[in-house]
Amino acid sequence: MGLSYKVRLILVCIGIFVMVVLGFFFKTLLIPDSFGVYGPFRADAIDEIVEIPIRHGTNDSCFKCHPYEAKIHKAGLHKTISCEFCHGTYADHVADGKKTGVLPVKTGEQITTLCLRCHNTEIKARSEKVIKTVAMPDHLRDQHVKLSHNCSQCHNVHAPLKYINRAKQITGLMEKGQ
Amino acid sequence: MKIKDPSPDMKKRSFLKNVLNGTVAGCLYLVYPMGADSFEIPEQIPGIRNKPYDIYDQEFAFVVDITRCIGCGSCCVADKREFNVPDGNYRTWVERYVKGFSDRIYVDCPNGGLDGYQSPRTDIKEKIRDTFFVPKLCNMCREAPCVQVCPVGATFTSPDGFVLVDDKRCVGCAYCIQACPYSARFINPETRVVEKCTWCYNRVRKGLLPACVQVCPTGARKFGSLKDENSEVYKILKGPGVLTVLKKEMGTWPALYYKGARREVV
């Protein structure tokens, strides 16, 4: 080759320079902007996760528009149960302050299944300190009712002892306010 | 020409303008939808809302009280609804542990506990010593194995201690699924990227409790900030009660603590 030492040196230098420029170009192209703000990850991802809309409210968000249910629910033993567990999420019901959908209400046999989800003694893993459990159908027999009865025929689902305490008050078995 | 004393006409005009502006603004304020956003819901984790969030000065912990869990599966249902988790995948689930008198352990988890536990196990021949439920979720390890193996930096530990997944960066290679000792991760069949429990990071940053903690009827799941000395979690961690973590020998240093867990729980 007829190239002199100097020309070849310049060519090599130009080659290195071009590769460095290309390298930086592709690096900026491939690495996201917020990469490395907090560590070796895209910091914007944190904000994106924060922006995920929430779907569950609290019981108070339901009680705002349902004062009748609120009064019963808050007074009963089931006050710690979330409305949304049985009825579906707040986001399915309300959007932008307006009602968008009707939430399901459990009826008949569904209620018994729902009750026994927690109140079944058979499971033998539920502490009496935490939850009162019953064995079915022994409970129906003990209470002298038909075996075809659903739980909701004696127990208000929102306040399980509401009707029972009221009946006791009427028959004089229990003082009012007890 | 300079008007020094505005005529009564000018005053009237400005007055009418103000009245009109006020009326329009007032009407807009009443008509404009306030939105079903977090501001309607009272704050549950104090000290997050209406304050600049210092991401370096946060510490959160999750406590699961096994002695209070009744296996109702509310948490699983809430979790599925909150994030529209596809069927067959679980961000959180509740396992049933049955211990026989021979010290043998039987674990089952039908449909991740989504349907609750309606009936006892009938396939165990020996006498049963103990039965209990163990809710499982992401352990938010301080030394997370999933973060170490991710080849593209899609899984990371945020400075406030949450192990999160960047769904735009994830390539779905599933290394992290194999690395996770707690099986908390899965590939979402719809988006083809890895998903996991985030302790509802989107809710926590809005001052709300995670959905599963929110719906738990017995208070078996507790979540709170360790920077807040009045939080329930702080008091539990400071108190004398025995807390355990899962798979301590893995050296993952989880921020998820179990209260009342038998040593058989893994």
Describe the fold and architecture:
The complex is a heterodimer of chains A (178) and B (266). Chain A has 178 residues and is mainly alpha-helical. Chain A has helices at residues 5-30, 44-50, 59-63, 67-75, 83-87, 109-119, 138-142, 162-171; strands at residues 94-95, 98-99. In chain A, strands 1-2 form a two-stranded antiparallel ribbon. Chain A is rod-shaped. Chain A starts with a helix and ends in a 7-residue tail after the last helix. In chain A, 16% of the residues are buried. By secondary structure, chain B is of the alpha+beta class. Chain B has a domain at 60-141 and 198-259: Alpha-Beta Plaits. In chain B, 23% of the residues lie in helices and 19% in strands. Chain B has helices spanning 8-31, 74-83, 145-149, 175-179, 201-204, 211-215, 232-238, and strands spanning 60-65, 93-100, 105-108, 128-136, 155-157, 163-165, 185-187, 194-196, 221-225, 243-244, 256-259. A 4-stranded mixed sheet of chain B has the order 9-1-11-10, covered by helices on one side. A 3-stranded antiparallel sheet of chain B has the order 3-2-4, with no helix packed on it. Chain B has a two-stranded antiparallel sheet with strand order 5-6. The longest helix of chain B is centred in the first third of the chain and has 24 residues, at 8-31. The model of chain B is unreliable at 31-38 (pLDDT under 50). Chains A and B meet through α2, β1 and α6 of A and α2, β4, β5, α5 and α6 of B.
Mean pLDDT of chain A: 91
Low-confidence stretches of chain B: 31-38
**N-to-C SSE series of chain B?**
HEHEEEHEEHEEHHEHEE
Radius of gyration of chain A: 33 Å
**CATH class membership of the domain at 60-141 and 198-259 in chain B:** Alpha Beta
In which order are the strands of the major sheet of chain A placed? 1-2
Order of helices and strands of chain A: HHHHHEEHHH
* Largest protein-protein interface: A-B, 51 and 58 residues
SSE-based structural type of chain B? alpha+beta
Overall mean confidence score, pLDDT of chain B: 88
Question: Distance N terminus to C terminus of chain A?
Answer: 109 Å
Strand content of chain A: under 5%
Amount of helix of chain A: 40-55%
Largest sheet of chain A: 2 strands, antiparallel
As laid out across the biggest beta sheet of chain B, the strand order is 9-1-11-10
Shape of chain A: rod-shaped
Q: Over all CA atoms, what is the radius of gyration of chain B?
A: 26 Å
Largest sheet of chain B: 4 strands, mixed
Could you give the distance between the termini of chain B?
Answer: 89 Å
